[in-house]
Design a protein that fits this description.
The chain is mainly alpha-helical. Helix content is 98%, strand content 0%.
């Protein structure tokens, strides 16, 4: 009879041990899941920070490029104006010289006609 009670108690203890081990296993799995989720969140936060810094760097680079482009456009416009002024000055000088040469030619022609 004692053997029967001892067997029942041992079976109950064995079932309790199995339930405890299962609970402990589930608890460890939950802890690991929480750790993994924490690591995933940490990685995602670091990726977001990296993307933000990359975006900031791109924006700064873009702003610098826009400033340089604006500066180059300003220099191009200034050179274009200087070229136009130079062309006008050269055209006036050429026209003045041509008119002077034409006047000399007319004088020479008049002299030749009058000289005959």
């Amino acid at each position: 009879m004692k053997f029967k009670y001892v067997s029942i108690v041992l079976i109950i203890l064995l079932i309790g041990l199995m339930v405890s081990l299962d609970y402990a296993d589930q608890y460890k799995r939950r802890q690991m899941t929480v750790k993994i989720e924490g690591l995933v969140v940490e990685v995602m936060e670091k990726e977001a920070a990296l993307m933000d810094s990359s975006l900031n760097l791109l924006n700064k680079t873009s702003e610098k490029l826009e400033e340089e482009i604006a500066d180059l456009n300003s220099k191009i416009n200034k050179l274009s104006k200087e070229i136009e002024v130079f062309k006008a000055r050269e055209l006036r000088a050429f026209t003045s010289k041509a008119m002077s040469n034409f006047s000399e030619l007319i004088k020479d022609i008049k002299h030749m006609i009058g000289g005959r």
